[in-house]
Amino acid sequence: MGFFHKYTGPSFHALIQLQYPELLSDYRDLALTRSGTVSMQATTTAAIKFSGGVLIGSDRRATLEGHYVMNEHVVKVFKTDDYSAIAIAGSFGPAVKMAKLFQTELEHYEKLEGVPLSLAGKANRLSLMVEQHLPAALQGLAVVPLFAGYDREADSGDIFEYDITGGVFIKTSHEPFASCGSGGERARDTLEHFYREEMDEGEVIALFRKALNFAAKKDAATGGKHYLLKSITREGVKDINLEEQS
Amino acid sequence: MEITNFISPKKILEIKKDIVEEALVRANPIIAGEYDNGIILMAENPNASLAKISEIYDRIAFAGTGVYNDYEKLRKAGVQHADLRGFTYSRKDVSAKSIAGEYATILGDIFGQQQVPLEVEILVVELGASQESNRMYYITYSGGLVEEHGFAVIGDIHLNEEDHKPVKNTLEQFLSDYPDPHTLPLKEVFQAAYNALDTVKGRELPAENLEVAILDRTVQKERKFKKLSRQEINRLSS
Fold it and tell me: Chain A: which residues have CB within 8 Å of chain B?
């Protein structure tokens, strides 16, 4: 009977892996496929902690092979549940698919179990997805997410940074910010230089703009006039309208 | 002549019906009611963690009564069905009708073919963009599918105090005093449903034992389902 599934656990990712493998791409037998695909590796994402929350955002440019601008209005930052959001750098198709799968994964767990996953639990699920994407990453279709969320029990915002093998770095108070993508290095230098402790939301929004502007100045793959930005606090995820801010 | 212990199919169905109805008499009924901004679901449930009412998707909620294990299995399958649809098509392509149809098919098949049927009744409700497009589906243990308006009740079988025989539809009759709940605010529909549960039980039902959830159009998120907290329930019941 098709309505009941053999798999009855709380993971949506496991459900489709086991029973609907056709919904997931299999990159293992593909040759090097990087050229000719739309990439956002070529991008800049950043997340910064502030007192009372955490900020996460990115530019909005998608490029072909790093220099031909395909689109200036791409969305690379997604709300994943009431208290977390993800920003993705990497190959466009797999990256957006991973964000959508991750969002469904969190919602599915919350509905089946009746309680949401802990913030560390969410970060670990994402780590597994990045890890399983490694064969594709080695062929040039990497996906590198930044994940930020608010832990209501501990009353703190957290940032998780990943590498292509699924390794997770939790950002501590020594370096309460992260950035990724081709412009990530310049953005990180800017954050390193201008970040101060106890910054409030308005100040980190200004800092985020500065970091992305510096990145966009030298990195052709980062750009677009308006950046996409979300703030996550005890009250939830909120869109920051940068047009109003400027 | 060989003597077999033949039992007529009609008799078998009657036995199955008795099995389920006995379970439903022991279980608590659940009421769903439309109000001006949405749909409320209410059950008596003293357990804090074993829910009878839960979220299926953005605008769709589930309620099940009877044997916990049985309706929990159906609820999980419903969430899987909804999330798979939303993932492969779009969030807009998930509908209560499709889920209710699946429930009716599966309950009908099991009731007809298996020795022991699932001892449950199920409610699937969907919040429409407007009042007219609200949907409430009542799925009976034998696979019947009924579309309801105003109020919908499942597990509406109770023991008569005097002769200890089961009587049906007591709550439904009680609630027929409110023909158009969808014009009323949440508080009034809440109290009508609470009053109904309280009266039918024949003993006082404390508000602490209520499990209440709403699908509300004024919730500023895609997911409109909200479980009411103790404080919210107390505010509505006073």
Answer: 1, 3-5, 8, 12, 15-16, 20, 23, 82, 100-101, 104, 107-108, 111-112, 114
Judge: B84–A15 Cβ closer than 8 Å, yes or no: yes
Give me Rg for the CA atoms of chain B.
18
Interface probe with B: pick from A1, A3, A16, most Cβ of B within 10 Å:
A3
Edge-to-edge order in the sheet of strand B225-227: B151-154, B30-35, B38-44, B210-216, B225-227
Q: Residues 6 or more apart from A246 whose CB is under 8 A from it?
A: A209
**Nearest CA distance, A85 vs chain B (angstrom):** 15
Cβ-based contacts under 8 A for chains A and B: 44
Task: Note whether ipTM > 0.95 here.
Answer: no
SS3 track for B64-123: EEECHHHHHHHHHHHHHHHHHHHHHCCHHHCCHHHHHHHHHHHHHHHHHHCCCCCCEEEE
Note the pTM of the prediction, 2 decimals: 0.93
Q: Does B50 reach chain A within 8 Å, measured CB to CB?
A: no
Spell out which residues of chain B touch residue A108, defining contact as CB-CB under 8 Å.
79-80, 83
**In angstroms, rounded to a whole number, what is the distance separating the alpha carbons of residues B76 and B72?**
6
Element (H, E) at B236: helix B230-237
Residues of B in contact with A12 (CB under 8 A): 83, 87
Chain B positions in Cβ-Cβ contact with residue A16 (cut-off 8 Å): 84, 87
How far is C-alpha B236 from the chain's CA centre?
21
Cα B102 to Cα B81, B135, B154: the distances in Å are: 9, 16, 18
Helices (H) and strands (E) in chain B, counts: 6, 12
Give the strand order in the sheet containing B60-66.
Answer: B53-57, B60-66, B120-126, B135-139, B145-148
Among the partner-chain residues A23, A82, A112, the one whose CB lies closest to the CB of B88 is A23
Residue A68, judged by CB atoms within 10 A of its CB (0-12, 13-18, 19+), counts as exposed
Neighbour-count burial of A233, counting CB atoms closer than 10 A to its CB (0-12 exposed, 13-18 middle, 19+ buried) = middle
The answer to whether residue A43 is catalytic is yes
Q: How far is A63 from chain B (nearest CA, A)?
A: 26
The per-residue pLDDT for range B187-227, each reduced to its tens digit, is: 999 999 999 998 887 778 899 999 999 999 999 999 999 99
Q: Give the model confidence (pLDDT) of B64-104 as tens digits.
A: 999 999 999 999 999 999 999 999 999 999 999 999 999 99
Question: Residue B117 carries which side chain, given as an amino acid letter?
Answer: P
